Amino acid sequence: MDVVFSTKKAVFNYRVAGIWIENGHVLLHRAVNESNWSLPGGRVEIAEDSKSSLKREFREELGNDVRVDRMVLVIENFFEHGRKDFHEIGFYYLITAEENPSSFRKDTFHGIEGERLIFKWTSIKNLNEVELYPECLRTALKDLPQHIQHFVVK
């Protein structure tokens, strides 16, 4: 069961995401019916730690075993989606492939769950041209902090 609950005021969501960088590009994903991109990951399950959750999400969505290197960002994200207000806590980790030397591709691709999500490697230099949420990622990914950085996005 995911750590998500709804109230009359908003939906609370506990999310984890991976920052996977190869060849000056970062891996992004989006739902096929949406235009905005985000870092791959998903909701944390009850009684699951965030690192295990991130590993599970990458295994489920891409079939990749990843190594979670370190936490980079904590983002408190307040946004509206589908006429609902959301309050999301996101833990963002730097990750690398566990075994595969490279997963980089030039074209967009679908994960192993079918055609629900589209993935693409995007040049970090060109992130300002991408509809990427939370928006603070556009600058944070260009110069990854050495210590955990905290953002509040409203």
From TrEMBL:
Known cofactor(s): Mg(2+)
- Keywords, A to Z? Hydrolase
What's one GO MF term for it? hydrolase activity
The record's InterPro entries line, in alphabetical order, gives: NUDIX_hydrolase-like_dom_sf, NUDIX_hydrolase_dom
**One family name in Pfam for this protein:** NUDIX
Keyword Phosphoprotein set for record: no
Q: Does the keyword Coiled coil apply?
A: no
Q: Which residues form the Nudix hydrolase domain?
A: 6-149
> By what name is this protein known?
NUDIX domain-containing protein
Q: Which organism encodes this protein?
A: Sporosarcina psychrophila (Bacillus psychrophilus)
